[in-house]
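ugh ok so i messed up the first submission bc i forgot one of the chains. this is the corrected input, ALL of the components this time, i swear. 669 residues overall. if the numbers dont match what u have on ur side tell me asap before i send this to the collaborators (the ones from the other lab, u know who)
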Amino acid sequence: MTIILFDGLIYASVLAVLCVGLSLTYKITSVPNFAHTSFAILGMYMALIMSKVLGMSVYLALPVAFAASGALALFMYYGIIRILQKKKSSLISLIIATLAFDMFMIGVLNIIADGIRNTYQVNSRDFTLRSLDIVIGGDGGLPLVFIVTMVLLAGLAFGLYYLLYRTSFGMSMRGAIENESLAQTLGINTRTIFCFAWFLSGGLAGMAGVLMSMWFQGDPSLAAIMLPSIFAGSIVGGFSSVYGAILGGLLVGISEVVGTSVLIDLLGYWVIPYRPVIPFIAMIVTLLVLPGGLIQLITKYKKRKNITMKKAEEEKEGSKEEEDGVGA
Amino acid sequence: MALDPAVIFIGDLVAIFSVYLIINLSLNLEFGFAGVPNFGKVLAVAAGAFVMGTIPFMMFGILVDYGGLEPVDDNIMLVHQINAYISAHPESVLGVFVVTLIVAVAVGGLLGLASAYPAIRLRGDYLAITLLGFGEIIRIVGINHTPLVGGTLGISIPDMLAFMPNEYRFLTASFVLLAFAGVIYLLVARFTKSPVGRLLRATRDDDLALQTLGRDHVKIKFKVMMLAGMLGAVGGVMYASYVEGVVAFGYDRLNWTFLPFVMIIVGGMANNKGVLVGTLLFVAIRKLVIYYNDSLDGLLPFDIIWLDYLALGGLMILVLIFRPHGILPERPQKTESLEKG
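and heres the new structure output, hopefully the right one now
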């Protein structure tokens, strides 16, 4: 039972971190990035290199993966997306370009994996670094990776809130996202902001990859396997909202792990390979029932609340005026 | 009599070219003309191949006494038995193959409709994501549902040309495939030249304008998805019957979704001749790379399988940046009133 709890929470949090990055770049460039998982796989191999090849603590891989995957995302934005946008390519061309970059990265990551195996005789496929992790309280205790994952997600949620709503950089960032040219006329350097966002998106994915390989497995094929889950999480949350992405990622991740274990009890072990169907169904249902995602539900509720409050105020004022009128 | 290696090379080239031509024409119809980004082209192709992996066994089951053999479990023995029957009764193939094609076309069309349904009214990117997901799902089902096409190991299927003598069989298969591709090419070329072709382009370019003229762009997209699904399934049937087997692992995103996209974008979108050029170019290059595999292996510092990913991915990006309209760009369609000018 505790294993399922750890599995579910770690997977869901990792997924949520990935979804945040995906939604962030989608909101900024309005391109769904099909190469987003390859940033995470790069992080996984950073973890493998740091721990098994260089013999350092695997937690040191977190900042390294952040930098490496962030740089890769930045390269993708500058080298491909921005050039295509300047050439006024259609949205579909941009999407195909991200898919092409994903294919290219699958090749690169597999070559890295082969290289590590051939040069250092380290298993580089379907590897797990779980045995290197510190478990607090001995066997069956609390694994450190669980705490780190939770802290990362919570830090991300608060950090993003602070960044976006409490700093002037965040305010110009929100402005640039809402209306790029208007922000530029106000003297905001939108290019720096977009670069920062892409770097952050890639870096977060890299860290998620490190954490993934410390509890589950790391393999280049995960890029294709996890992609539908991440898109499902982002879409369930409402594709262009960062907070929606956290919600959607957690929801999809937990339902994937818990749903599979429930279905195993009900139907038997043959359902395990069909696990990716669960997030896919969640995505389809969202698109059919609530295309704006969970965040649409929340904003609707808020708006309704605001409207009813305003109405109540107006009625109050109105009745006051009437009273005044009567008085006069 | 053994065939000359050069003949084998050309025969195989023609067969693979024909298969990809059918698939690319269908993708061009939905993506090039109508603007539906079908990132799950593999769905229709795999569906066709899976139908080819199941229906012939059922059909021959009526004609031949299997004696308790199962299509998946006793695959080799059963295929051997059916092939012997085919060599004795060549006329049976016609019926079985036609029924298989009809079933495949029906399944492909239905899957085209079903996969488009959730997101066809939304923006193109949502549709692309949903279709990509469908493409992944059919692969998972094929690999894990063993009774369908033998799961991870795959299955052999009866040779539809088992009645031919060995030395003619190979080239006849290539010829039949080429004939199918040729007929489909002519039909699609005719179709896209007709007013329907203009309707599809209009759907792609400006659905709002189309709606003001009283056309429902969603309905048109549904229809084109269905048609392209049917053609894609035909491509899948052709490929499976050519290689005489179905291995679900083979129906991946690189070979049956991404490669067709590369072919039609490099060749020229919304231009059937461009599709012809692009398909021929890539099939030939890939064939040559496989042919000179051994001598290339020493030159590269990595395993040659990954060259496919690097080269295709890199090339696609370069083409999108430097030559987005392809070798043969789309041409304005000549109508009578335009020519009168």
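quick check: Residues 5-333 of chain B form one domain. that seems consistent at least. Chain B has a mean pLDDT of 90.
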